[in-house]
Every structure is written in C-alpha cells, then in structure tokens.
Model the fold of this input.
Amino acid sequence: VQLQASGGGLVQAGASLRLSCTASRRMFSNNGMGWFRQAPGKEHEFVAGISWNGGFTGYPDSVKGRFTVSRDNAKNTVYLQMNSLKPEDTAVYYCAAARGAAYSSDRSQYAYWGQGTLVTVSS
Done:
C-alpha cells in the first residue's frame, strides 16, 4: 500500500486547510487510518484517527473541535479538515494506515505511512 498525502501549504492563523491522503490499494477500506504530525525538533504527535468504516473517530485535546477526520472508501481517501489553525499547528503531517480496522494513537500500530505534507501557519 502506498499513501499519498497532499493539501499542505502556508496559511495565516485562523485559516483552514483540508489535507487528503489517497491509498493505492483497495485494502485501505479495511484499515483504520490516522493522521500524525511532527514539528521541528519534536516527536510525532497523533492528531486524528478514524476506524475502517468511519464509525469511530478520535482526537487529542490539542486539536479537538478544530480538526475533523473523514474518509471516502470508494475513493480510497481519508481527509483531515483543519479549521482555526494556529502557529503551533505548524508541522509535517503524515497519514498512516493501521494494522487493523481500528485507529490508534500509538504509531507502532500503523503499518504504512505517507510521505508527509508540510503545513505552515503564520501568526
């Protein structure tokens, strides 16, 4: 499985962006998906997860209420809608496919990773 993330860019604080992650194979529809980010000098941080059929989603407190994850299995694509962006959201954002049907905040539970897309939020 190959994952291709896109949609990053440079925006001002308060703006919105929508990231997309498209998988190369149909097996994507059976896997939980996650979004992580890594800011310069920091560890990877879980920012959103969604179960295989979209029935369950999860977010850390840092993005809850601002970020929304969704998926379209017919298009092998998962989305991350990011609203009210803050400078501290600046990072490279990665999508990942979980080993099973559920998502997890634990990076070790993900088998496939996209290449990352850079989001920069200016103040």
User: Anything to note?
Assistant: Residues 56 and 99 are 16 Å apart (CA to CA). The mean pLDDT is 95.
